[in-house]
Amino acid sequence: MCVTCGCSDDGETKIINLQTNEAEHHHTHTLADGTIITHFHSHDTHIEAPQIHAKIHNTTISLEQDILAKNNLLAAQNRGWFKGRNILALNLMSSPGAGKTTLLTRTINDLKNQLPISVIEGDQETANDAKKIKETGSKVIQINTGTGCHLDAAMIERGLQELNPPLNSVVMIENVGNLVCPALFDLGELAKVVILSVTEGEDKPIKYPHIFRASNIMIITKIDLLPYVDFDVQKCIDYARQINPQIQIFQVSATTGTGLEKWYAWLIENLKVCQR
Predict the structure, then answer these.
(1) How many CB atoms lie within 10 A of CB 196?
(2) Average pLDDT for residues 10-19, to the nearest whole number?
């Protein structure tokens, strides 16, 4: 049970390799003493550990700081893994329907001759978005969290083993659509990127302050729709900087390409920084 929002961390997580179409089931359980146990079942085996399950089910959740501390330890390991391979890792977060996947596929297609980009795709169910990404030619792994509302560092660690991104590349982690819990879980990324579409409302930064405070970048998407929606761009920017004065902001349309050159320049420059 996620102590933040009540979602189940004891649900089944499934990792799908879009290159091989093989699936692996991943269970993460938190014991009463705060110990996190993760075990995996491949697509053709299912080996249970009865003694583990007996301890888990009928126990209470440990303190939030214990859960986050163990996640942060794995995140630090992921961060070292990325650094050792000169990989720029980004955690893309937004509410459902903000346009993460559309922005991601446009970015991959436009930069495929300049930047190798691999993707870890997070959703509760289906591989629909991962299939769209696969069509770009990018390497992609789908993580289905079941009842879970966010990716965590353990999922990323296992996903990276399946993904095996090349050295000197970019890994985009598309988190589950949610403006609450993803902000709390460090995945080992270099930067958190929060994506907000003009169809949502300019007050999102003050309604969901934690995710904007935790993010390095805010991308305002679907700006081609501004003539048709009631969205005050400047007010949104002011709200975001009220929460996080250091946040860097891009305004883009993945449909028309407007503003994407600045986003692409940031990616190229920061990959160079990772390679130094």
Answers:
(1) 28
(2) 70
